Amino acid sequence: MSEREQRLERLNGMLRRRGFILPAFEIHGGAKGFYDFGPVGGRLRSRVNQAWLDHWLRMGNIVELSCPTVTPYAVLEASGHVGEFSDFMTVCGSCEEASRADVLLEAHHTNPDALKMDELQNLLDASKPECPACAATEWSPVEAQNLMFNTTIGAGSSGRQGFLRPETAQGMFTSFNVLFRHFRERLPFGAVQLGKGYRNEIAPRQGMIRLREFNMAELEYFIDPEKKPEPNLGDLGDLMLTLVGEGQEPSSMRLQDALDTGLIRHATVAEFIGRTHRFLEHVGIHTDKIRFRQHEQDEMAHYAVDCWDAELHGSYGWVECVGIAHRGCYDLEAHEKATGKTLRARREFDEPRTTVIDAWTINGATAGPAFKAMAGQVKKAVEDLPKDTVFPCTVIIDEGATVEVLAEHVKPNQKTIKETGEWYLPHVIEPAFGIDRIIWHVLDHAYKEDIKNDDKYVRMELSDKIVPVDMAVFPLFEKDGMGERAWAIHQRLCATPGLVSMYDASGSIGRRYARADEIGVPRCVTVDHQTLEDETVTVRSRDTGEQIRVPIDELC
After folding, report:
1. Of the residues 383, 401, 420, which one is the last residue of a structural domain?
2. At what angle do helices 267-282 and 41-57 cross, to 10 degrees?
3. Which of 268, 426, 448, 420 is nearest to 352 (CA)?
């Protein structure tokens, strides 16, 4: 076992032992792709979520939505998920373990995720990779497997098909008109949503990297495609980032230069790359382990203008944790076509525009006697005809009835239309964050091992912004009133808004410091005999080990 694998094993053991992350339903044998955030991890996740919300809400034109996780079939049919949301699967001929074909072939192709099904099949037949479960090399034909969990909405014969949502985005698209009104019909604006997503992964692997139930956070930012955003990125433009352009090697570049040279194709995409980098740094990701990789043409959806992934490096190599995509108007247009409901914004012209339209109308002198009571319906149908219509022609009137219109029944009709504005489909830029993957890398980067007395001593150097516990309170001994005083200080800290305190009186003070270091507590407060005399406590720093005396009133 390599040193990396040994470290990963020790890290996972500590996370499980200390209540960060552990397999779900373990007493029943567990279930692949499902994990619990324990008593420490649950609080960590909440703080990362809140940090993410605060980060985007401070833009000033972003609101938070909360939409159902159960989604009707029609919604995900319109979005394309029913037909397209699939991975390619193959089954081992020996042990019948299902695997993703592209994952099996990672050692045999630079980007197997971009291959089509027949290309995967040919490569699978040629390379014969070993089954990860039993090492056999015989595989079933590659087939597409839709990843959504099916469910039924309603009971009995009235039930209709639905799915657990595979992403949070669709509820924000279908709520566009509500958002448009909320923002007083002025773009740009955005909506964010944090919550659960569900994907019935073929072969969950690498712990928190690929899950069947996961935490995600998405922003849908609606823009006017004709209004160019400010090209100057301000202080974001000076960020030095590692960028992997399409078909290029990684390089370090100022964000503003990447936009100015056209490497990043849209100013708002560049802005969100910068804001994403700042968020990742804020929650404790090491900046030298962040890179942004541009999608190749065969990776991007046909409607995408540009797409970048924020990839983080850790124990599993480079892992995609954020996707930042310019999705054009695809999503709103898809739901508009499926429902017949208008999902548009309006832009006003600087000056009214006058348009002259050459068309037809009926000649009342001849059409009236010819069509009698139907003359009004015929007039409407004729006025909808294009100018190049040749008469006689057949037009459709009420309830599908048709009539023949002769040249003598019509005359030219020139209309002048004055317009002050127009309705249009907004474009969408979407940063989508995998919260579980980010948390995993936060923990991976924070995990430090020191040698003390020939043993490995673990310290989690978590950012103060997201630590699950802010302070730990210890009585030196639970006697002579020290226990009662320490508990009172702990309760006082717990009553302080935004602060989480932990009380620990078990074992030696050294062991308690070690346990606090393992879960990343920045400061430990020790109550001793002197506390009872002068109302001061010893405060120990996690990262330096320095200890100072502090008055109790200055703790918070």
Report:
1. 420
2. 150
3. 420
- Position with higher pLDDT, 356 vs 518: 518
**Measured between alpha carbons, how far is 206 from 5 in angstroms, rounded to an integer?**
12
> Do residues 489 and 549 both lie within one domain?
yes
Sole residue written with tokens 């459709």 = 396
Q: Exposed (0-12), middle (13-18) or buried (19+): which is 244, by Cβ within 10 Å?
A: middle
Q: With contact defined as beta carbons under 8 Å apart, do 468 and 44 qualify? A: yes
**Residues ≥6 apart with Cβ < 8 Å to 175:** 65, 67, 191
In a domain, 494, yes or no: yes
Confidence at residue 477, expressed as pLDDT on a 0 to 100 scale: 93
Instruction: Let me know: does 168 contact 195? Beta carbons within 8 Å.
Output: yes
In a domain, 542, yes or no: yes
Q: What DSSP character marks residue 476? A: S
pLDDT band at 413 (very low <50, low <70, confident <90, very high): confident
CATH code of the domain in which 494 resides: 3.40.50.800
Give, in order, the Cα–Cα distances in Å from 144 to each of 50, 90, 147, 204, 486: 37, 9, 9, 17, 60
Cβ-in-10-Å burial (0-12, 13-18, 19+) of 249 comes to exposed
Count of structural domains within the chain: 3
Q: Which residues contact 76 (CB under 8 A, 6 or more apart)?
A: 82, 85, 148, 163, 165, 166, 170
The beta-carbon contacts of 249-258 under 8 Å, at least 24 apart in sequence, are 250/291, 256/232
Residues 484 and 546 both lie in one domain: yes
Note whether 331 and 173 are within 8 A (CB): yes
Percent of the chain beyond pLDDT 70? 100
pTM score of the predicted model: 0.88
Report how far apart, in Å, the C-alpha atoms of 62 and of each of 50, 93, 174, 189, 231 are: 15, 51, 17, 6, 21
The strand pairing partners of 140, in sequence order, are none
Nearest to 522 by CA among 505, 502, 507: 502
**DSSP 8-state code for residue 518:** H
| pLDDT above 90 for 399 | no
**Count of beta carbons in the 10 Å neighbourhood of residue 30:** 13
Three-state secondary structure string covering 356-389: EEEEEEECHHHHHHHHHHHHHHHHHHHHCCCCCC
User: What confidence score (pLDDT) does residue 38 get?
Assistant: 97
CATH of the domain at 126: 3.30.40.230
Is residue 118 assigned to a domain? yes
Pairing of strands 143-146, 98-100: unpaired
Coil, helix or strand at residue 69: coil
The torsion angles phi and psi of 15, rounded to 5 degrees, stand at -60, -35
Domain-terminating residue out of 386, 420, 454: 420
Residue 205 has a pLDDT of 82
- Which amino acid is present at 544? T
Q: Does residue 454 fall inside a structural domain?
A: no
Q: What is the DSSP string of 221-250?
A: EEE-TTSPPPS--GGGGG-EEEEE-TT---
Render the burial of 289-320: b for 16+ CB within 10 Å, e for the rest: bbbbbbbeeeebeebbebbbbbbbbbbbeebe
Separation of first and last alpha carbons in the chain: 46
Q: How remote is the C-alpha of 13 from its chain's centroid?
A: 28
Q: Domain span at residue 139?
A: 86-146
